[in-house]
Amino acid sequence: MSLPPGFLDELRNRVSISQVVGRKVVWDMRKSNQAKGDMWAPCPFHQEKSASFHVDDRKGYYYCFGCHAKGDALSFLRETENVGFMEAVEILAREAGMTMPARDPKAAERADRRTELTRVMEEAVKYYRMQLSTQAGAEARAYIQRRGLTPETVSRFELGFAPDQRQGLFNALVQKGIAAELIVEAGLCAKPDDGGAPYDRFRGRIIYPIRDARGRAISLGGRAMDPNARAKYLNGPETPLFDKGRSLYNHGPAREACGKGQPLIVCEGYMDVIALAQAGFGGAVAPLGTAVTEEQLHLMWRIHDEPVIALDGDTAGIRAAMRVVDLALPLLEAGKALRFAILPGGQDPDELIKAGGPGAMQKVLDGARPMVDLLWQRETEGKVFDSPERRAALDKSLRTAISRIRDASIRRHYGAEVDRLRRDLFGFSATGGQGGGQGTGQGFTAYREDRPFRRRPFGAKPPALPLPATRSTLLVAAEGEAVPDHLREAVILAILATHPVLIPEFESQLETMRFSDPAHERLAEAMLQAIGAGEILPRIMQAAGADLDRLLRQPHVRTAPPVLRHDDTAFARMCLAEELAKAEAARAVRAEVAEAAEELEGLADEGVTWRLSEANRARERAERSKLDDTSDMGEDRAALSAQLQALIDGEVWRKRKG
Questions:
Q1: In terms of CB atoms within 10 Å, which end of the chain has fewer, N or C?
Q2: Which residue ranges does the record assign to the Toprim domain (predicted)?
């Protein structure tokens, strides 16, 4: 459903976000200023005792300085009430006394159809749950008891039983007035090829209802009671409600548990999830009959920044882990990662918990390994590197894997870690010599710079170590393609620090900007926290004084025109807007070029060529953009731009020969 222009703005203006949030939190009145709409409370999204959750009624936004959750009244309602966007809009519209706009007829028809299918699924869940308690379900109950599930767990996960009858469910639903075509469309029954009456898809199986993030029944899973059944586990087919590659078992409860601080554990099947939840690990999910998909991976990252992939320690489990590694490599970004908990002895989580209790599972989770460890294990395990050719083959395979990481910063960190592991494997000494009879005597800098290895000529003196003052400069702090970003970020932050009155004006750009240096990230966060605090600069100095001091000591920052002219705020505003636009344009160009380059297999087609040319034109437009050329400000702004561009084009961070 589409909303008319201005509807959401009017809704946000009518609704007080402090009233919406106030239903879920207890305000800290010592820290809050109710008259100004400046409210503070302990964060409802993570466990804490201090009031780090800030609500600004005037701006209509909330932000947590602990877990960095942020948004408006709609996003808060979606996160806390577990509702979709349109449902959140409808709830707030009712509170504000606003009438929802008329729905698109076709969209309404599709939504109504989905509502009907959901109702059919709920009736099926009730039927199968009832069957579990009958005489026909005695064997299923005995199996569930042998698996150690408590009655509370059975009720919590709504387990049921499908009798071994051809039309048991079909007849029961038809008797309730449900049309046969709806039963088939929901995936509960199938039509035979001969055109006869539909028959039940699940027969002689324990039933596991599958619900979406909002708790709606969208499909079923079934485990066969007959050990000779063709498929031990069976999922419902793809339907208007159910896309198994975009769904996770136990999605809603896991999301709630992770919001309270529990880890997100990704395991293989229904029983693993149920066993983990019963043992106290509520943040457990599982893919539905498929290997983990890209869409499921993004779902996991929306629940938790670092899911733990807990797979069986057998050969199949290791292979599954490696498939996840290959899937995740191109998708990694700062703050979004994976860890892998390989269970011992080929056990699954259910078996491990039965053998050693929750403590044994917690120990495995505590020892979860980062993804780079599995990548290294795959390329080195069981191999001997006793020749230059074999070591070169290892270098090539690792370089190929790392090159698939799109995020430049993460790619460099992976290169550095692989460099360390390679030195450990080949026994290099600190001076670059060999140990243990293996190795090349070279560090693996090629992973980071993608340059060939170079040896120092025999008898040549080692290069002089850089002076401390040189090592501390921003030009050395960043490497390779990150330097242009680093230079521009430093100048942007220096302008804001020199003219702090501009920080509230450029708050949204600063909040969405991605920084290549943790020090820049800390300084930007300190600036955002200082907004609305009266004297901004003292607050910044208190939170990030060391980072600010180091920044303003850099020569190329000190000599920037808007920093030198600390009394000319109008000039600084124009320079700042231009540099922010150029930073955004540069990132957009690199993202577009990187995406297009992946499509280059052999000769580039016309589509890719067009995309590259458009990206280049966008950059040229950004470089030509001028905000205002009145008086002599245009010349100074041009001087700042030329100064930065000269540093970037001249690659002054690279060592010159001679």
A1: C
A2: 262-344
